[in-house]
Amino acid sequence: MPHSTSTKKKPSRLTTQKNTTRTKTKGLSKCRTPASSNISKIDFTKAQKNVLDLLKIPGISGQEKQVAELIRKKLIDAGCPASLISFDQAHKKTPLKGNCGNLIVKLPGTQRGPRRLLMAHMDTVPVCEGTKPVVKGNVVKSGNPVTGLGADDRSGCGVVLTTALEILGQKIDHPPITFFFAIQEEVGLWGARTVKASDLGKPKLAFNFDGGDVDKLTIGATGGERLDITIDGIPSHAGVAPEQGVSAIAIASIAIASLHQEGWHGLIEKGKKRGTSNIGVIHSGAATNVVAERATIRAEARGHDPSFRNKIVRAIEKAFDKATQSVRSSNGRKGTVTITKRLDYEAFRIPQTDLSVVTARKALESIGHKPYYDVSNGGLDANWMAANGIPTVTLGCGQHDIHTTNEWLDLTAYKAACRAALMLATS
Predict the structure, then answer these.
(1) CATH no. for residue 71?
(2) CA count, 13 A, side-chain hemisphere, 143
(3) Of 21, 26, 264, 356, which has the fewest Cβ atoms less than 10 A away?
């Protein structure tokens, strides 16, 4: 998960809707959820080994090949024909040079039914590189105190892989299924961004395994835009003739202070509209005796309402333009600012009556859980899946405190996610 999502909560409005909605989704009667006693049994010892094997592999964004090779080997060893396993060329379409494309496994059905998609992303963030997973009771943490665990999202990969292996090993009847292991989620959702519905067999139901609490069904998420800001000032000797220079650092400081003072930085609330922005990275300067010639800045804006998010972006642009005008050398020269923008992901919201949402809720309820709906303030692969014509509900796998050295995996929740996934793939 590339950005932090909302903390666990059970909004009363959503929960009430969950308990009272009468679903009228076309074709839903054809997708019956079996009783818990009819669910195929899972070898949880192997399921746990799957996730531990995956956690041990380095694989930050752009370096997922070793992870993909392990998944492919386990599938082939379980009897999956190599002809059903493929890699696309997503890594050749991304800003970050990668060593591996998306891994896609398409199983033909042994029974009729709409094609299902189960997916997770293979990459982790740099803080997780060098992790050494250690099991203590029902919890997995990194035995290396300076690294995170990487359960975001190796636990999701473990769930999806375990589902495929159980189907293959037990020869469980199933409708057509696609297993999708995406690359470079953490740096812009690039695997999901570049894939096409036709590449995945045009699934009718779609489930993404990522995102914390096993009872949480994420049915929507915010949209996000990134800004690369370059300020070009004028260098001069900071001791001999500082007045002849234009400091790029000074321009950046004025702009950022203005955004903060006017309520356009951090949590942004303007009337009934809400969003966020952040100046996240600044690089500038080479020495204390030189007026800084250049500053490069990376910023972001997020919002569930695209029009309000665009207002946030315009406020950032305006602040830097104004700051550039306010800093001048003794002879009237001024710096310049260049801003490059790109959409990371657009906001989406899936109706609670959507077939995938209803099916996921029933699956969790059938194994004794109480699902609740959530809308994330971070981006998910599901953002781009929705944009690509595949509305996708996201289920948690027990990951907690992701992207930190305190990250841990709840094995009880992970095993529950494996049960739900097998139901979603076969029922």
Answers:
(1) 3.40.630.10
(2) 8
(3) 26
